[in-house]
């Protein structure tokens, strides 16, 4: 009995220990260590403590009050930096704790001042998005010193050639579609330019066999009359109209994304958006891996139905098996010989079937046999009449 009580007590003790370990509370644990009070406070403010408490196994790297109190600074990447067009540190923002509950923001470029500060939090979705209000714009030195060129003044063909899209650029110039692009650029234009290798791929039609109208439609299909940067393409759900879209055909594109990859679909084949050549509102130019082939121009036509065979009259049967009615004649009184005796009745046929029945092959043969002597007799009688006269 004592052994049983001991076993039950040990089992209860182990269960209690497991429950305690799985139900840890990071703020309660750190509250017993005053040197981590600032770190513990930030865990509570940011709600990170709740996330830590849901983990069964975790290692927390804590900072003591001496390490966390001095003014801290960090550099954060902006979307401008992700475009690849930001020189130096212009694509980073400097975020600095100014103490007293103030946080300053400024460009990470050397010599920049923290002229903007945190005002309030507008909206937060933990671990996903946070919207903060700041006191004024963050301006990086040199960005606004010169006016940006208008989209229509951008040398599109030079940019395309430099990006490895010489064939596409040449087609735009020779067809005159480059003027359509330039006139649409100021209101918003997105260009999907196939690289030179894309035009050499299998399945690409021979452009020399296309009409001028088809080439124009093909090039118009590679642009949309709107500003659609990479981020917008990633979240696009509806079909995208192109410059070729009209009442005669849709000429639309659909977009799918997986992670940081964006793919365009024409209905014939996919094409991946490869690189950003230019992103300057309201103009953006991308390179794509394959030529975009619209179904309206290059869709596979349904296979033609097999041609019907000419309708012809049935071939006449041989006289031996089916004699023509015209040669069956009634017995003539001038016949020199009696009709041929009837043939034996085939097995299964009525014994008293009438002579000359159309359904009897034997009767048909008899008719042919009788008609020959009748004709000869008539012919001989006519000759005798002529000689006697």
TrEMBL record:
Residues 1-23 form the signal peptide. Its main location: membrane. PANTHER family: FASCICLIN-LIKE ARABINOGALACTAN PROTEIN, FASCICLIN-LIKE ARABINOGALACTAN PROTEIN 8. GO terms for cellular component: plasma membrane; side of membrane. This is FAS1 domain-containing protein. The lineage of its organism: Eukaryota, Viridiplantae, Streptophyta, Embryophyta, Tracheophyta. Pfam families: Fasciclin (PF02469). Residues 304-317 have a biased composition (Pro residues). SMART domains: FAS1 (SM00554). It is found in: Cell membrane. Belongs to the fasciclin-like AGP family. It is a lipid-anchor; GPI-anchor. Keywords: Cell membrane, Glycoprotein, GPI-anchor, Lipoprotein, Membrane, Signal.
